[in-house]
Automatic annotation (TrEMBL):
Residues 373-457 form the DUF7586 domain. This is CubicO group peptidase (Beta-lactamase class C family). Transmembrane segments: none annotated. It comes from Pseudokineococcus lusitanus. Pfam families: Beta-lactamase, DUF7586. InterPro entries: AmpC-like, Beta-lactam-related, Beta-lactam/transpept-like, DUF7586. Residues 29-347 form the Beta-lactamase-related domain.
Length: 477
């Protein structure tokens, strides 16, 4: 490996030879079956690149053979959007912008009237929920294949007519929206968006090889003829104002470091943990209308529901290149894959992740006793919502309320930041709702108040002050 490749994984993180054989075989078959000029991939676990593989030739026709190395750059296409979103959210953490801000507050040339593009919020643009047009059809030709103009050329085309859907109600992928966010980033920081991206995201993560244009150690972008084994070089240029939608080039180790950030194992805080959680929260779902939805969008991140497994990351494509980055939200394992073919690969990334999980599953942490606060211990055990049995369990950092032996509304709770003895719901139906502990004359918990619902220690306990009262005759046949 070259000197600037990532450090080798620690001895206890090296994959078994049988695992690497399976991964390499899968990559090799994909390169042949999909007729990819070259393909590279990597797997990330606990913040480390634990496997790296490559097949094929990254050079263009007529050039000396160049087997891909860890330092070889590929265009990552729309994974650029995730990087730009991270930079915008870092500005949010610095109190420079709010997700509810109309973008026209910062880019007044986009207007401030309700029908203007400037009325769209920053959060809607980040979450692909703005309804803004997908492409810049009013400001030039196909931006992925032709040099782009600057913001001054793009902005006049962003009139009310550029809004395709009512904002906030449906997924509508917008490259143009990320051009707007790139200009927003530049205004917020007073520097070109690419400089901000470098100082605020790429450098802190150690993404040292990432950049906006190809260099001497970059793969050649190629189109593969559909019916013959010949290739055609694809164009490469500066997309101008549209560049924030998909112009970054990067290596496998670069993207591995970003995958570690999404998994929370990067070892550096680029955005607050609470902000990172917002990025992975669905803003809209990609509703196919003909079947169950399997994907959605967070703040700058694609979300996939793969057979009940939740993946976060982003795909990317530009002429001559396809890329994929995915992180398993439950395990934190990540995968990156890139090729220099316009038609790209199929579900290679997910299959590589599957091999890692099947061949070397993560072991759960060993169970061990831990301290539980007295005011938590007195709440654990069965409770009843009317006749429905529930149970409160102590978790490492709070409470879990769930059904006991039958389905019921379940939520996790954490202590209120106000430190007033209340608990705040974190997810599902009770997210943001307050749980209050009511005590009897002896000081022991008598019942729980949760969003007007009354939970008692026995079904319809008259001592629990059940709203509407309890029939005086009690339970009877």
């Amino acid at each position: 490996m070259p000197d600037d490749a990532p450090a080798a994984p620690p001895a206890d993180a090296v994959l078994l030879p049988s695992t690497t054989t399976r991964l390499t075989s899968l990559l090799a078959r994909e390169q042949v079956e999909r007729r990819l000029p070259s393909v590279v991939a990597g797997l990330v676990r606990d913040g480390r690149l634990v496997w790296w593989g490559a097949r094929g030739d990254a050079a263009g026709p007529g050039a000396p053979a160049a087997p891909p190395a860890p330092t070889t750059r590929y265009r990552i296409g729309s994974i650029t959007k995730s990087l730009v979103a991270t930079a915008v959210l870092r500005a949010h953490d610095d109190d420079l912008v709010d997700l509810e801000d109309p973008v026209g507050r910062h880019l007044p040339e986009l207007g401030t009237a309700r029908e203007d593009v400037g009325a769209l919020t920053v959060g809607q643009l980040l979450g692909q929920a703005s309804g803004l047009q997908a492409e810049n059809d009013g400001a030039g030709p196909w931006w992925e294949r032709t040099p782009g103009g600057d913001w001054a050329a793009l902005a006049p085309a962003l009139t009310a007519d550029a809004r395709r859907h009512r904002p906030g109600v449906r997924f509508h992928y917008s490259n143009t929206g990320y051009a707007v966010l790139g200009e927003l980033l530049a205004r917020l920081r007073g520097r070109p968006w690419a400089d901000v991206l470098r100082t605020d995201v790429l450098e802190p993560l150690g993404m040292d090889r990432a950049g906006l244009r190809r260099d001497d150690d970059s793969a050649a972008g190629l189109a593969v003829h559909p019916w013959a084994d010949v290739v055609l070089p694809e164009p490469e240029h500066d997309a101008g104002a549209m560049a924030p939608a998909g112009q970054v080039w990067a290596t496998v180790p670069d993207l591995a470091r970003f995958a570690a950030l999404l998994a929370g194992t990067a070892g550096v805080e680029v955005v607050r943990p609470s902000t990172l959680a917002l990025m992975t929260q669905p803003q809209v779902v990609d509703d196919p209308r003909t079947g169950p939805w399997a994907g959605g969008y967070g703040l700058g991140l694609q979300l996939w529901n793969a057979g009940g497994r939740r993946l976060v990351g982003h795909s990317g494509s530009m002429p001559g290149f396809v890329a994929m980055l995915q992180v398993d939200a439950a395990t934190g394992d990540g995968v990156v894959a890139m090729t220099n073919s316009t038609t790209g690969f199929g579900d290679l990334a997910t299959r590589l992740l599957d091999v890692l999980g099947e061949a070397e599953p993560r072991l759960p942490a060993a169970w061990a006793p831990r301290p539980v606060a007295d005011d938590v211990l007195e709440l654990v055990g069965p409770w009843y919502w009317g006749p429905s049995p529930l149970v409160v369990r102590a978790e490492a950092d709070g409470l879990l309320l769930e059904g006991l032996g039958r389905p019921a509304r379940a939520s996790r709770f954490r202590r209120s930041p106000a430190d007033d003895g209340t608990w705040v719901g974190l997810d599902a139906y009770y997210a943001g709702e307050r749980l209050r502990v009511r005590r009897g004359a002896d000081g022991a918990p008598s019942h729980l108040d949760l969003a007007t619902f009354r939970l008692t220690r026995t079904p319809y306990d008259p001592a629990g002050d059940v709203p509407g009262g309890v029939d005086d005759g009690g339970w009877r046949a």
